[in-house]
What we know:
The model has no long low-confidence stretch (mean pLDDT 92). The chain has one domain (2-297): 3-Layer(aba) Sandwich (UDP-N-acetylmuramoyl-L-alanine:D-glutamate ligase). Helices cover 35% and strands 24% of the residues. It has a nine-stranded mixed sheet, sandwiched between helices. Strands 3-2-8-9 form a four-stranded mixed sheet. It is an alpha/beta fold.
Amino acid sequence: xILCCGESLIxxxxxxxxxxxxxxSPVAGGAVFxxxxxxxxxxxxxxxxxxxxxxxxxxILSEALTASRVDASLAPRSDRPTTxxxxxxxxxxxQYAFYDENTAGRMLTDANLPELGADxxxxxxxxxxxxSEPGADAYAALCAQAGDRVVMIDPNIRPSFIRDEAxxxxxxxxxxxxxDIVKVSDEDMAWLGTAPAELLQGGVTLVLExxxxxxxxxxxxxxxxxxPAEVAEVIxxxxxxxxxxxxxxxxxxxxxxxxxxxxxxxxxxxxxxAVALGAKAAAVTVxxxxxxxxxxxxxxxDA
Length: 303
């Protein structure tokens, strides 16, 4: 199983009611949640770990996970509220208002951490769940307990969310020091003050630098390779990076490379099909509204 560890939330998207009045529609989301959903749809053994509420919004999240074949049995439930993100659009640009105080996801603690069984091959971390305590500290503790399992991190840094930069940097540096796979954007690297070569020198096996329409560059100790983006008519980019993460992990699973030893020994030729699967899956997601990753049957039909 690939266990996705991090935030799930409800995006309250702007809509117009039948009466013509402005309204909001609840849609399941969250970066790590989206990656879990995409993994399940791509046929990989996917699991989700994150605090889920027993409220009506938590039920929406649980139902979405089940519908996409994601095992959420390790996710602790509580009667704390679900994180809500109200979205408003100004000239087509989205702005978010987060309601996250004392929520089921944010108030996760070390006491909620699961026992990692032999069935878990890899752990995925990322998104805003790595920012807000106490949940962020709990995820960092779980990362430190990964043992011989493959760890992937997509920091997806959003500076506006960070309240204690020194604490966040220390936490993230420790997690990156344990990571086997790291996906970063130009913006992430600029904020971190690092580069792919430095991450590799720090112990990371595979670094993926996303370049939007130019595709992805994969870096290993053996060199680098650019994998072009798939051509797509872009409706929006919501969930594209999350879907790429899932496609990469699903591809590595298919290739039998979700092992720290095998991944380290793999060549760029071995890894490239997984990167390409991530790019192909992400192209489908950007071609339709919202974070709506493809099912494996859709990709096979296009092959």
